[in-house]
Queue: 2 jobs
Job 1
Amino acid sequence: MKALRMERRPTRFVAAYLASTFGSGRGAGVGPLRLGDGPSPRDLGPGWTPVTPLLAGICGSDLATVDGRASRSFESIVSFPFIPGHEIVALAERAGIDAHGQAFEAGTRIAIQPVLGCAARGLALCRFCQAGEVGRCGNLAHGHLRPGLQTGYCADTGGGWSDGPLMAHQSQIFVVPEVLTDDEAVMVEPMACALHAALRCPIDVTDTVAVIGAGTLGLGVIGALNFLSDAYGLARPHKIIVGAKYSHQQRSAKDLGATDVVEPKQLDRAVRAAVHAGSMGFSGHLGELSGGANVTFDCVGSADSIAQALRITAPGGRIVLVGMPGKISVDLAPLWRREIELIGAYAYGVEQLGDVSIPTFDLAFEFVVAKGLGNLVSARYPIDRFEEALAHAGQAGSRGATKIVFESSRSTKHRKDDA
Ligand SMILES: [Zn+2]
Ligand SMILES: [Zn+2]
């Protein structure tokens, strides 16, 4: 089976880290990622179905891994060699049962909810898995599978960056509604992250929301805030102010419902004007605002973006960390003095919308269709061209792109009118 495999080779991680200083995604050529033939994953027993990827996305956390920049906190919850790729739309090779307990036929298109929680590991469900909050599961290194927080980080399951098959557990399988294109279906996993993030703290109609970063997650959060008020009657914030660097990002941010779109450097000023705050800076120094956004979504996760979030979030406000941070150095004095809450937003599970509780993936199917988010897929590459693909993903913003995906020859349904 042809696949991209990530091997544990420390010297190659160092080489990747050095290469990536010349641009995100550059670690692909020298790093621990290898294209080649290798064994297919073994059958993992009852509840598991072999599936063949149609499209598999490249996300920021993948680039950090390829470039040797991922947090060392992941070391105990991955197992090598693994096949990356956790944003997956695939075809079931056999009939099986999905996450809702419904039967599906061989050949059915499925989206994979990649978290490898207690159910997939053959364990009694922990309290989080029982509540459907699989993202919070703490058993990611236990059970009959080798460690792996998700499909795409586990040596036993296979991953999306391959010809397939990979193994998907019943608890991970969501049948893709017919109306979705493959491009829409591959956006379901990242858009489930965006929805989950948007729901991590309550929003009021008088709120000013700031969004840092306008890549896949930033655009997803903007769209999610609007979708949740359009479709589920949640409060629409008074303002959504977005810092977006590139013109295509600025256009998409507007289309998805941002009220104010500015260059990232102008975000402090835009928030300040919107809430009529003062700046506590002195000349040549970016200061904290006296007021600020009620909620800031940091969709970057760097030291600079978190520092900016701390400057522009109102005292008593909240910062939702959406982009994956690593080991960084940030002055937390403003967080302490301004009594700001810092909230993590990882993965998905079950969302509570008033009286309705709905798996994030089911909500994401509705979301990607309602907002036409298949349009965020900018380019498709066969896995043979992985170096190009990863370089494109690493420079997506400056190259006018948002989401880059790997495509297999079996993917045909890119547009509504395709077969
Ligand atoms: Zn991802
Ligand atoms: Zn669990």
Job 2
Amino acid sequence: MTIDEVGNNMPIQMGFNGIPYWNLEPLQARVGETHVWNLINNSDFNHPFHLHGYFFQVLDENRIPEWKDTIDVPVGETVRIAVNFEGRPGMWMYHCHILDHAEAGMMGQLWVGPEDSTDPAPEQDLSVLIDVMVKEE
Ligand SMILES: [Cu+2]
């Protein structure tokens, strides 16, 4: 998943994975899963990443562990977060907390499906890659 500036014309467009929110498919998760997301900022702006509905931990040995719902992803840096979907199934949002960026496209939806108690616990990929990059035209 990438956070992205799209196109060369003003007004600038932004998005995740090069896709502004109006074209972006929701991320998928299920109650009970833990996802590790890599927030990779290859753009020219800092982006404070904000997630609705769940707190997350930043995976960085140099940080004091704390629960956060927003983390700044500085220009050129990668921030790894782990989020556990411990409940609250439904559609949630994530977006850049700079409102101009969000309005320019840097928002997305996250679908958290209910825990499926009828299936055996599946082997599952617990990581979702989110990277942040400028789309090459
Ligand atoms: Cu931003």
